[in-house]
From TrEMBL:
NCBIfam families: PRK07046.1
Protein name, per record: Glutamate-1-semialdehyde 2,1-aminomutase
Keyword Protein biosynthesis: no
Family per similarity comment: Belongs to the class-III pyridoxal-phosphate-dependent aminotransferase family.
InterPro entries xrefs: Aminotrans_3, PyrdxlP-dep_Trfase, PyrdxlP-dep_Trfase_major, PyrdxlP-dep_Trfase_small
Keyword match Membrane: no
Keywords: Pyridoxal phosphate
Co-factor(s): pyridoxal 5'-phosphate
Gene Ontology molecular function: any one: pyridoxal phosphate binding
Highest taxon of the lineage: Bacteria
Amino acid sequence: KTSIGGISTARIADLRESEAAIFRRARPKSAAKVGNGLPGFFGGVPMHWMNDWPTPFPILVDSAKGATIADIDGNRLDDFCLGDTGSMFGHSPPPVARAIRRQAGRGLTYMLPSEDALAIGPLLQQRFGLPYWQIATTATDANRFALRVARAITGREKILVFNGCYHGSVDETMVRLVDGRPANRLGLAGEFRDLTQATKIVEFNDLPALEAALRDRDVACVITEPVLTNSCMVLPDPGFHDTLRGLTRAAGTLLLIDETHTISTGPGGYTKTYGLEPDLFVLGKPIAGGVPASVWGMSEDTAMRYAAYNSCKEPGYSGMGTTLSANPLQFAAMRATLEEVMTDENYVRMDHLARRLDAGLTAVIDRCRLPWHVARVGARVEFICAPGPLRNGGEAEAAHAPELEATIHVALVNRGVLIAPFHNMMLISPATRAAQVNRLITAFGAVAARLAA
Ligand code: PMP
C-alpha cells in the first residue's frame, strides 16, 4: 500500500517519527521513569493495553480534573478520551468526589446494602424504564450475567452478535465474519474453543441475514450496542431497531442492549431517546462517575420468567465471583452521578458542544479535501479516515487505519489534546469547555493540513 486514508505512507511515517521525537522531548521526567516500562509489571505496564497506546511510552499522569489531564512533566492536555468513557462525565465530578469522601469513613464494602441502595433502584427504574435491576462492577460482568439470564429462561444456548461488536471480555462475543464466514476473532489469548459453535454472527444493518439467523429459533439472545462504537462508528439504518425488535420477538429471542458507550446519547441512553424496548439492558463504565460499577436491568416479562426459572431449578448460585459488587462506595458514587451529574442540563451542554465539534472537524476535512468523515452519537464524536457513512462492521474494519490514526493521535497530544487511543473517539463531558473544543478543532486542522499538504 502506498497510501492510507488518502495520505501517502511515506508522509505518515515521517510525521509519526517527528511527532514521537517531540513527545519524548516534552517529557524528560516521564521518559526517565517509564521510558523503559514500569518496574515490576509484566510487559512494563499494569494493564497490557497500556502498551497499545501509540505514544512512545505511556503518559504518566499526575492528576486529572474536569476535562483536563496533566502529566508529571507538567504537560496539560484537554482530555477527550476521558478514560475511554469511564470518566465521560469528567474527572472527579464534584458531587461524586463529595460522595466518595462521605462514604470513605463509613466502610467500603460489606456484602449488605446501604441506604443509598434504597434510592438507586427507583432512580434506575425511572431513568431507563426497566423495572428490575442488579449491580455489578464492570460492563463485562453485567453482560455476562444478563446473557446467563437469557439462556436460562429461553433454554437456548446460542447467542447472536453483530460483526465488529465489542462487549468486554465476554468470551462468546469474540467472533468475527472473515470472508463472510464466522470465526474466532484473531489474536485471542488462550482461547481453545470454537466460539462459533454457540455464537451466530451477521452484519449490523443486514436484516435479511438477521431474520435467517433467527429462523431456527435456537438463539437465546441478540446482544448489541444501539450504534456500533467499538469499530469505526456505524449508525443504524432508519427502521433497523424496530425490525430488530420485531424479529427477535417473533423468534422468541431476547434483546440485550449494551448502552455502555451510547449513554452519550442522553440521560436515559439511546434506549430512552429512541424508545427501544430491550429485554435486558446493560450500562457500565461511567455509571458511578469513574468508580468501578455497572448495572443491568430486566424487563417485567424477563424478570417474571427468570423468577419462575429460579423457583423450579435446583438450588444453587450463579452470581458467584461478585463479592465486591453492590458495595456502599459504588452506591454512593452512583447516586451522586445519577442525581447530580447525569442531568438533563448537562446533556444539553454536552450535545451542543459535540455538534460544534462535529461541524468543526467536518469543515477541516472538507477544507483539506480528505476522503474522511465524522460520525456522532450524542456526546460521542469520531472522525474516520475513510469515506462514510459506514454501514456495518466489515466496512468499519476496512475503514480502520491504525498507522495513520496512531500518527494523528500523537500529533494531537503534542498539540495539547488527548483523544481515545485505538480509534479516533472523542467525548464531551459536562466539564468540557467551548475553548477546549475549539483547541481540538484547531489542532486537528493543523495535523490534517500537515498530512494533506
Ligand atoms: N460494552 C461496551 C459497549 C464497551 O464499549 C465496553 C468497553 N469498551 C465494554 C462493554 C466492557 O467494559 P469493561 O471493560 O468496563 O468491562
